[in-house]
Amino acid sequence: MNVRNTAAAQDGTTRSAIATGYMSGFGNGFETEALPGALPLGRNSPQQCAYGLYAEQLSGSPFTAPRTTNERSWLYRIRPTVAHWNTFRKVDTRLWRTAPAREVDMPIAPLRWSPIPIPSEPLSFVEGVHSITTAGDAGSQGGMGAHVYLITRSMVDEYFYNADGEMLFVPEQGSLRLWTEFGIIDIEPGEIAVIPRGVKIRVELTNGPARGYICENYGGAFTLPERGPIGANCLANPRDFLTPVAAYEDHDAPSKMYVKWGGNLWAADIAHSPLDVVAWHGNYAPYKYDLRRFSPVGPILYDHADPSIFTVLTSPSETPGTANIDFVIFSDRWLVAENTFRPPWYHMNVMSEFMGLVYGVYDAKTGGGFVPGGISLHNTMLPHGPDVAAFEKASTVELKPHKLEGTLAFMFETRFPQQVTAFAAQSEALQQDYGGYGHKLTKHFDPTKP
Ligand SMILES: O=C(O)Cc1cc(O)ccc1O
Ligand SMILES: [Fe+2]
């Protein structure tokens, strides 16, 4: 696919060739240019690039990774990244934490948080990441950070890239325009975006203040799960993933470049926008996906299947079948199973489960307390399951086909135990009484009634 897309600057001055549009497919080799002929034909590194551009390769995998996991793109840009460089100094990471970060010792218990309020103070994306848990070790390229973002101002002449991991954005309130080196991605609640490790961005608000979740993936890049006997279709279909067409800025202004590297945040003064990629090709690029396009597959006769059937994206580890992270959603679907307790069963899991809610009601927690913007954490081998309201209803209701509608919950599930940050442990949003919800499940046992 070769998308040519040249558009006039929207502010008529310094920000040039602003084009929005997407190319469809997951992990394709894409090619796109914002100026005709900017992309070299038949080679990556011509002696001289068109328009006086510099060629730069961005490698998301080792050079020698097998074909299925080999990821790299070629960027044709006004200046190479090294020319956007200056002396970096460490700045405050505020509430953004990186594994390993054992800040507090939490008692082992199910944990839940009410939505963290969006403050009135100005917070850019870089300033507004509030880490809730960390897992694994970013330096060993395994595990994740699970964060809530609270954004009240757009980044202006400020840019950021994350060397520690790729970032999966799950908006819950407000929409975002992610200006990336590769082009522009707009997302709103119900959609997600993935920004690969090392990709420069500027985050703008497009509809008031924003709140959402971020999974910072230190490990293997998110990919589509195997479908096994499900076959070639359903779940997240590759054609519904959208990667932006090239769009660049030729913008000189005193600016700040932020880099998250080794768990620290670094900042440097630069004189121009690094979002200056006029053309690119390759398979290492940001993308978005509308979660409402997910085609769930589930039990159509009896029983409740494992939640792995709702995996949208998975970050594999070296151990087969043992994900570094699974990103799983619980979205609109019909429940039809006969003689079945339909909500999630009571369980304990070697994987640890960070959950969030974008909208609606989650069917395991109908008794209130788990609301949009909220969080629950069911850590490694800690017991959990439906609250008493969900249990009572689901075990007595007449089992007609029933549609769960207007609901979108999700889970970042990782093989590693999750460490709660000091911020999350001390937050007023932490629900002190949640750990006791199991006590409301009373004894129904009667040896005389089989
Ligand atoms: O705990 C949860 O609510 C998430 C979940 C859902 C489900 O359907 C099965 C297992 C599971 O961990
Ligand atoms: Fe669970």
UniProtKB/TrEMBL annotation:
Alphabetically list the UniProt keywords: Dioxygenase, Iron, Metal-binding, Oxidoreductase, Phenylalanine catabolism, Tyrosine catabolism
- Function, in words: Involved in the catabolism of homogentisate (2,5-dihydroxyphenylacetate or 2,5-OH-PhAc), a central intermediate in the degradation of phenylalanine and tyrosine. Catalyzes the oxidative ring cleavage of the aromatic ring of homogentisate to yield maleylacetoacetate.
The UniProt gene name for this protein comes to hmgA
Catalytic activity of the protein = homogentisate + O2 = 4-maleylacetoacetate + H(+)
The enzyme class is: oxidoreductase
Question: In what residue span(s) does the Homogentisate 1,2-dioxygenase N-terminal domain sit?
Answer: 22-291
What is the protein name for this chain?
Answer: Homogentisate 1,2-dioxygenase
Transmembrane region positions? none
